[in-house]
Amino acid sequence: KNYTDSSVFLNTLTPKFYVALTGTSSLISGLILIFEWWYFRKYGTSFIEQVSVSHLRPLLGGVESSSATGLFTSINGETEPRPSVSECKVWRNPLNLFRGAEYNRYTWVTGKEPLTYYDMNLSAQDHQTFFTGDTPQLRPEDAVMQKAWRERNPQARIRAAYQALEMNQDCAAAYVLLAEEEATTITEAERLFRKALSIGKPLLRPTPSQQESGSEHLDINLLVYIKRRLAMCARKLGRVKEAVKMMRDLMKEFPLLGMLNIHENLLEALLELQAYADVQAVLAKYDDISLPKSATICYTSALLKARAVSDKFSPEAASRRGLSSAEMNAVEAIHRAVEFNPHVPKYLLEMKSLILPPEHILKRGDSEAVAYAFFHLQHWKRAEGALNLLHCTWEGTFRLIPYPLEKGHLFYPYPGCTETADRELLPSFHEVSVYPKKELPFFILFTAGLCSFTAMLAMLTHQFPELMGVFAKAFFSTLFAPLGFFADKMESFMPSSFWHQLTRI
User: Fold this and answer.
1) Which of 55, 213, 358, 469 is deepest in the core (most CB within 10 A)?
2) Domain spans of the chain?
3) Could you list the residue ranges that cross the membrane (predicted)?
4) DSSP E strand stretches across 340-433
5) How far is it, in rounded angstroms, from Cα 30 to Cα 7?
6) Tell me, what DSSP letter sits at residue 259?
7) Residues 304, 306, 312, 318: is their CA dihedral positive or negative?
């Protein structure tokens, strides 16, 4: 009887019903596909998968093993702690540009903002801590400058700097802000930094009151910052030898401030002078083979080794005779650099367009790659054949790294938090480079297939309604046939009184 009823119901359905059914299914699955794709592009994960893991798994009793959380297997097989998201530390870009003279000029020309609010907020925190920290006796002009660094509006920051100068004409921090943000040329910024330096030099001989208040330390920080920016001004204005001398003097005068990475400014200036022996001497001091400090260190080391062999390097000749020891050293240095930061080669080989570097970078991230390539691409181009050698060998690095990335080859595994941090640091118009490439989640592939299949059915049903109606009825009849057969068998085995009592219940 049940089978007969279902057959009668199917026979009453018209072709329009099947068109509406398949069309609605296609529309709904298409909307789900669009949302899933948008969510994956924005957050790097599937929404359905995330909801399933977060909400459905606990309800079904699934519990993740807590013993393995935050651990990975090292090369020697031992279990070591995996870097967490909080350990993806953001660093100040050693070669960051000037806002007024460089970043703002880009905005005037293109109408695009090269800096994100997150990046600028980090800079404001740096300036507050570095120049106007929490001293017991905060000077009035310092209180104004502390507020100035926090202002989001550039004009408000500039007005606050002038207000601080009205309180004290010798407020070096105010001149620093004006040099960074109001000066529209490097020459004007250099003039303001020199004014700030003339104010800051006497502060190297602090008074007893300054020592008691703690402002001596802050004034030294400010002085180091001013000297460094003056050296960068000299470099940008073409006085490279003067810039190198200022950087060397600064590193010698304040050797404990290595965390400022002034050596990276020095390396770039020495490469501009083509003083490769001096570059090698700096690398010998700062390059740690097992734990390099930055992409600048790794790729500069690779550049020097590539430069020694690249002018005569030929892929065809190397495949016939094999690599010489010098060529092997250069290739290994390139592989080491690429494993440390795999985003750099595409910028150096101009496979991806460059943007202005952010004020902060993430080690091993796309932001660091942008910052390195922006300043060092010219040095790779100057070394004949170096980019050709990089082009021929850089992709070989990925054959050496195990997959999936539970292990690194030379270094600890590539951290998984770089994409999120880079999206905060880099402007929205830049396509963030992601490594390793995320595979499309199952639900995106499933909804894409479902949408395509139902759309095809809707189109066929609309074009051939009678034929598709026959196929649909045959499909549903076949689908319900086992159920009808099972129901008939149950009726034959069970006494009629049992079914009567069951319906009464």
Assistant:
1) 358
2) 133-204+214-285
3) 17-40, 440-461, 467-487
4) 360-362
5) 31
6) G
7) positive
Q: Report CA-CA distances (Å) from 336 to 290, 365, 402.
A: 10, 15, 14
- Show the tokens assigned to 348: 């150096």
DSSP string computed for 1-61: -HHHHHHHHHHH--HHHHHHHHHHHHHHHHHHHHHHHHHHHHHSS-HHHHHIIIIIHHHTT
**Contact criterion met (CB below 8 Å) for 271 and 300:** yes
Cis peptide before 345 (omega within 30 of 0): no
Residue 389 CA from chain centroid, whole number: 26
Rounded to 5°, angle at Cα 261 from 244 and 410: 120
b/e burial code for range 258-269 (CB count within 10 A of at least 16 → b): eebbbbbbbbbb
Concatenated DSSP letters of 463-486: HSHHHHHHHHHHHHHHHHHHHHHH
* Residue 375 CB-density burial (10 A; 0-12 exposed, 13-18 middle, 19+ buried): buried
Was domain 133-204+214-285 assigned CATH 1.25.40.10? yes
- CA-based R_g, the chain, Å: 33
Checking DSSP bridges between strand 79-81 and strand 71-73, what pairing results, if any? Answer: antiparallel
Q: How far apart are CA 145 and CA 127, in angstroms?
A: 9
422/365 Cα distance (integer angstroms): 7
Using CB atoms within 10 Å of the CB of residue 169, give its burial: 0 to 12 exposed, 13 to 18 middle, 19+ buried.
Answer: exposed
DSSP letters for 89-140: -EEE-TT---IIIIIHHHHHHH----S-HHHHHHHHHHHHHHHS---SS--H
- Could you list the beta-strand ranges (E) of 354-484: 360-362
Read off φ and ψ for residue 90, nearest 5 degrees.
Answer: -95, 135
Place of tokens 């399933």: 52
Host H or E run for residue 454: helix 442-463
pLDDT tens sequence across 27-58: 787 787 777 777 776 666 667 666 665 655 55
| Pairing outcome for strands 360-362 and 90-92 | antiparallel
Q: List % helix, strand, coil for the chain (3-state, nearest 5).
A: 70, 0, 30
Residue whose entry in the numeric block shows the structure tokens 């495949």: 319
Query: What residues have CB less than 8 Å from 16, skipping those under 6 apart?
Result: 465
**pLDDT tens per residue, range 403-435:** 544 455 566 666 777 888 888 999 989 988 887
Nearest Cα residue to 448 out of 5, 14, 29? 29
The pTM is what? Answer: 0.70
